[in-house]
Structures
1.
Amino acid sequence: MAKVVYNQDINEAVLKDKKIAIIGYGSQGHAHALNLKESGFDVVVGLRKGKSWDQAVEDGVDVKSVAEAAKEADVIMILLPDEYQPKVYNESIKDHLEEGNALVFAHGFNVHFNQIQPPENVDVFLVAPKGPGHLVRRTFEEGAGVPALYGIYQDYTGKAKDIALAYAKGVGAGRAGILQTTFQEETETDLFGEQAVLCGGATSLVKAGFETLVEAGYQPEVAYFECLHELKLIVDLLYEGGLENMRYSISDTAQWGDFVSGPRVIDAGTKARMKDVLTDIQTGKFAKEWLLENQANRPQFTAINNAENNHLIEKVGKELRDLMPFVKQRKMAKKEVASNDNN
Ligand SMILES: NC(=O)C1=CN([C@@H]2O[C@H](COP(=O)(O)OP(=O)(O)OC[C@H]3O[C@@H](n4cnc5c(N)ncnc54)[C@H](OP(=O)(O)O)[C@@H]3O)[C@@H](O)[C@H]2O)C=CC1
Ligand SMILES: CC[C@](O)(C(C)=O)C(=O)O
Ligand SMILES: [Mg+2]
Ligand SMILES: [Mg+2]
């Protein structure tokens, strides 16, 4: 089994006398800044003036321009959207890196795909939580944590690993488990996971199931509960105890259906297409297309996003969720930020 590191294995003293700049205050940024601050670290947030700036001030964190924050910090964590990182790095961070500083990422994309080339005299590592930033924050507040990967790209000071582990402990990952990786492994597995399983795979599966039922004449509300709402409850059981635990809780009829019909839906063809997706990630094809899409001001991203937001499942879901006050929607802010950036 791979070595998994926990809080008791980590001495955070190596990071306690350093200033940490968190660049960006979105999904990951607000979670890292607040968790690190509450773990007793010296944190400054680097931002442009705007919505996030106002939120960070309201949350009581020290906020400065990106350049000022980068200049005064020893450890600079870049938590901007991947597609904007190279520009901000070149304009406001690069010139403020001092010998022995640490340049940190939560995803290896820009270093692995050669969009950011750090100088040789700094540490470069990643601390990548394996979960959405809003849950990194929420679980921390609940006394738990989200697991994280750390990976060292460049160890100039000889202390990169100790600093990375102390950082991971500060955001709460040491309560759940921290694993070593490389920039290549983190980048490729993270992109694959979000495309094939967690985001692309899951949304496509949910929509296909919903559409199949609605097109067969069943009520959209019934289809919504069956294919989307209940998925969370099933995934909770998978999260808590794996496949066997989920199957323990469902009926034997459902379990038999799982065995005989699941592989008819997700079959060898699906796996072959997953391999194609992985190949496009490994060869840099996906990265190149995403970078070019951004250079063109996201024409396809915008068109698809608009169509997805108008899907019947979204309309039905909103109406049903409004009638379930215990289902709280906590995070539209991030996507509003993203669409503002496109305007
Ligand atoms: N989302 C997640 O849960 C995960 C993300 N990651 C990685 O973490 C990194 C951050 O992702 P994520 O948290 O989703 O990012 P977000 O999209 O949530 O980041 C938005 C933040 O970046 C700020 N920002 C955007 N452009 C600029 C700019 N030009 N100058 C200054 N600030 C800017 C926004 O400020 P404003 O309000 O001014 O627009 C906002 O604070 C990425 O590398 C991602 O791959 C890794 C694991 C999970
Ligand atoms: C699953 C999507 C993710 O990789 C994440 C939350 O871990 C992301 O890039 O947002
Ligand atoms: Mg991820
Ligand atoms: Mg990701």
2.
Amino acid sequence: MAETKNNVVVEVFDKEEIAVSLAEYVAKISNKFTKERGAFTVTLSGGSLITHLRKLLEAPYFDTLEWSKWHVFWLDERVVPKTHDDSNYKLAYDGFLSKVPIPPGNVYAINDTLSAEGAADDYETRIRHLVKNNVIASSSNGFPKFDLQLLGMGPDGHVASLFPGHSLVNEDKKWVAFIKDSPKPPPERITLTFPVINSSAYAVLVVTGAGKADAVHSALRGSETSEKLPVALVSPEDELKWFLDKAAASKL
Ligand SMILES: O=C1O[C@H](COP(=O)(O)O)[C@@H](O)[C@H](O)[C@H]1O
């Protein structure tokens, strides 16, 4: 059953159903933007998110989605070579991107030959260029407006590489930032910032497992006065949809 408040929808599924419903939702949004704008800009997280995209590789989506109009970005990346097992690019490529006909030129990997600082600057510059060329839409607040952000959440309530208690959570100018002291290894990462995440049109949060139930409870039922986890700050312009399994929703 879905719970809807303002522009936030929370839906709880049997674990296996998540991939089915997520594929349906992503396809709906992809179709909307490819029709309206002739392009669909989507950001990927690392971690468990990628396996939840698996139903997009099957009928009816594989043959009907306009893959040539997809433009794929990363919410965050670890500062490691693209061939490294910690690389979010490698995870997405092996599990999803290598299996769909998205033009390689529409896959915007973070440069793995640069330092954390250099890679963050380079990614922001490339995103600015794509906004100028209308590949990525622009929000009225001046930040880029991605069509859809696909977020996971860590057990501590982090999203992208924005961790609880870290000053990067409050970054309000940069589009892309770097972190060298990530509490979750590897320590060096680059990440989209909250103004960018929250200027997107749509965002989904895919969260599974009992280990994440406390953070889910804090985000969705926490008091107004308690300090918010990063996940509780996700607030896109049009709609945020939570895809929870029963274990992750067990404390709601
Ligand atoms: O380190 C990261 O963790 C989060 C959550 O991962 P999960 O495996 O618990 O789903 C992920 O969303 C982020 O992209 C990644 O860099």
